[in-house]
Amino acid sequence: MRLKVLELLKQFEKLSFTTDVWSEPSANVSLLSLTAHGITNKYERISIILKCEQLEGRHTGEIIANNLHNILKDWNLSAESVHCILRDRGSNMIKAMNMAHFTDANCTIHQLQLCVRSAMESEEFLLPVIAKCKKIATHFNHSLIAQNELKHIQIERLNQSELSILQECSTRWNSTYYMMSRILKLKDSLVLYSGMHAIPILTADEWLDLKKCITVLMPFEEITKELSSATATIASVIPLIYTLKNTLETEKNKEDTSDNFNLMITKMIQDINVRFQDIQNNKLYTIATYLDPRYKLKFFTEITKEQVQSEILEILGCSKTSHDEGSSSPKIARNELATTSSSHQSHIQSCLAEILSISDEEEHNIDCADNVYNQFIVKKTLLTEYNREKRLSLNEDPLTWWRIHTKYHSLSNLLRQYLSPPAGSVPSEQLFSAAGLIYDPLRNRLSGDKAAKLLFVKYNLPLLSFDYKNYD
């Protein structure tokens, strides 16, 4: 398997990585993961678990940085082959990236979860509602008799399909969302059950607050699921964050939004603005968004449109001369986009699709520079032609588009580099979910080195296509 991985890594000039640290207190083991992400020359996305390195002692930034360098060295990868590393906002992780001189980015999903958690914990009017939901979930989680009686009420008395109460997990905000959604769905059953048993039950106003809270949190859940998919890339972050803020503004302006929820949504938007304030100036995001044919220049200001194309030309080895024309893409007014969600959109993809459908004709009015003959103009013309191409719909694969449009072959290395990063560190978190299964109560003395090998084998087996005989 190591030979196969080495063979695969040779075809990449640049790779993106996700990393995370996981600890199992009962076994006194800590693991540092490093997962490589790349796009092959056939425009196929690939992820490779390079290693789960056992961490000894304290998890300082210096130790993490040294371990990351050692893992790269084990796979004959240089620091120059690192396009970027996705990590959480832990101070030790941030320090490790600075010490190792890696280009890094925050996990978008983790950032969104922090926005939600901060909003829910700061709004006192919601705390009693959440507390009651937790007590209801605990009551049914601890009693099979209660579960069976609730199912009987759903089937026999309300003629509904049976559903179970979902329990909250303290480490995942979306589990709170799922718990609240399920309790709202089982409202009638729970009210009937509470008439026969002493359990906490929400008041009429609290049921309304619960329903509104779920509506406000729904876009966060949809974006989290969208960015957690295996095909999601960092290119979708700017469009989805813009759409999220647009959707929240629409929700805030609805007539049924109380002052409490108005304040809560305002805090959410402010928190999002703070956490993602530099995203429009970060070329990891802007170039990736531009190279995704579903988005291109749609979500950029006039200055950013000029900047991102200039950066691409510089990366391609073209010097920007004084003859360079101004930005060729028309400015999209902020208030024009702000009206795209004037009516409620329950699905975040619907909002995003609606925004992308605006001003297609304006984006085609792109002029080419005249009377300058050099490499800059050749590449600039290529980008102009790319700008004129009709944007893909959201359900189409951008890599398939690039594979078919061979006239843009000279941009191949660039897009393979900038579209390789996932939107978050989900691959590393999934790896550690499996680690939690390995360290069960009867196997908590397993060494970290052996656990790392088991994880390496488990997740990289598909790379061999399960054809073991060729790698004896």
Protein model, in words:
Strands 3-2-1-4-5 form a 5-stranded mixed sheet, sandwiched between helices. It is 52% helix and 8% strand. The chain contains 20 helices and 5 strands. The model is unreliable at 321-345 and 365-373 (pLDDT under 50). The longest helix is centred in the middle third of the chain and has 25 residues, at 204-228. It is an alpha/beta fold. It folds into 3 domains: 1-106 and 424-464, Nucleotidyltransferase, domain 5, CATH 3.30.420; 111-276, no CATH class; 283-321 and 365-423, no CATH class. It is globular.
Radius of gyration, whole Å: 25 Å
Q: What's the number of extended β-strand segments?
A: 5
Classify the beta-strand content into a percent band: 5-15%
Helical proportion, percent range: 40-55%
Distance between the termini: 10 Å
Please count the helical segments: 20
How confident is the prediction overall: mean pLDDT?
Answer: 84
The biggest beta sheet is recorded as:
5 strands, mixed
**Unreliable parts:** 321-345, 365-373
Number of domain modules: 3
Encode the helix/strand succession as letters. Answer: HEEEHEHEHHHHHHHHHHHHHHHHH
Strand order of the largest sheet: 3-2-1-4-5
Q: Give the overall shape.
A: globular
The assigned structural class equals alpha/beta
